[in-house]
Design goal:
85% of the residues lie in helices and 0% in strands. By secondary structure, it is mostly helical.
Amino acid sequence: MKKNFSFIESFRCAFRGIVYIFKTERNFKFHVMFSLLVLLCSLIFNLSYIELSIILIMIVIVLVLEIINTIIENIMDFLCKDYNLNIKIIKDMSSGAVLVSAFISVIVGLLIFIPKILVIVGD
C-alpha cells in the first residue's frame, strides 16, 4: 500500500474511513444521532461557550473511542478467525472504554442541562 503524499488525498482517505464506520457500525450511528440531539438541545438552551465546549469535547471523546473500538475489533477479527478467549477479552475491554466515556458524557450532559431545565420548569 503506497503512502499518500497529498494532504487532500490524506483528507479524502480519512473522510472515507469515517463514512465507512458510519455506514457499517450501528453504535457509531447511535452516538452520532444522540450527539446531534444534544447539539440541538445546546442551541435551544443557549449554552455558554464553556458549556458548549465541554459538550463538544465529550462528544469527540465518545466518537473517537468508538472509532478506536471498531479498529481494535476489526484488527482482532483479522488476526484470529476462530473464537479466542483472549481476543474476546480485548474486544470487551475496548467496548468498555466506549461505555465508560458514554456514561460520563451523560453525567456531564445532565450536570449542564438539568439546571437549565429546572429554570424553565420553575424548580
